[in-house]
Design a protein that fits this description.
5 helices, two-stranded antiparallel ribbon, mainly alpha
Length: 136
């Protein structure tokens, strides 16, 4: 049973690697889709779409590695950063529910998207905790 848990956590880690890299790439391929998600008070909205894409790609790549930085693996730090980033993006997705024209398309999609953000948060936390425990 322990081996199944271990392999499941490894699978979830590398699935998150793929997910983050793909999400980051999508910021470059579908800029117009992501522009409405950038809060209106921020200038240079296109810059923030590209910047967040770069951050997602970098965090996804770093999540795959185990070399040490500040006594812990870069993968563990990356998982923590992804966890925090998912929390930072949560208000954007909640706000989308209340928009007259949701950025994601429809109110139904906006409502469905919010619970998925909590799943992503939990996923990143699980990966972070498994990497942290592995280092103890």
């Amino acid at each position: 049973m322990q081996k199944i848990k271990q392999y499941t956590l490894i699978f979830l880690r590398y699935l998150l690697v793929i997910f983050m890299i793909n999400a980051g790439i999508q910021h470059f391929l579908k800029v117009d889709f992501y522009l409405p998600f950038v809060p209106r008070f921020l200038p240079f909205t296109e810059f923030f779409v590209y910047f967040s894409g770069v951050v997602e790609i970098v965090l996804g790549v770093l999540l795959a590695f185990n070399f040490k930085v500040l006594k812990h693996s870069i993968g563990m730090w990356s998982a923590l950063a992804i966890f925090i980033m998912f929390w930072v993006f949560l208000p954007i997705h909640i706000g989308d529910v209340f928009m007259e024209n949701p950025a994601i398309g429809t109110h139904k999609l906006a409502l469905i998207r919010v619970p998925f953000q909590f799943i992503f948060i939990g996923w990143a936390w699980l990966v972070y905790q498994s990497l942290k425990k592995k280092e103890q």
